[in-house]
Design brief:
By secondary structure, this protein is mainly alpha-helical. Helices cover 47% and strands 0% of the residues.
Amino acid sequence: MKLSDFAAVIFDMDGLLIDTETLYCQSWQRAAADCGFVITPHFYEQLVGRSRADALQIVLEHFGDQVPMPDFHERVLHYETVCLPKRPFLSSRARGR
C-alpha cells in the first residue's frame, strides 16, 4: 500500500474514536499509587486538556512534598508507554453511547 492509495487520513486528537483519556487517568493513578498518594478521577479531571508540564505542576501544588516528582513522572511515562498501546478501545462516543 502506498501513500497515494489514500484519499484522506483521520487523526483522533480528542479521544473521539479511541477512549485514551480513561487509560491516561489509570496510568496517572497507578503511578501515584506506586509513589504513595491517590489521584481520584475527580482530581484527574483538572489535568485533562493541559500540557504535561502544567499537569505535573498541578499535582505538585495539590500534593506538595508528598510527591517524589522525578519518580512519579517516570512512572507516569512508563505506564503510558507500556500499558496504553495494549488497550485500544473505542470510545463511548464512537460506539454511539
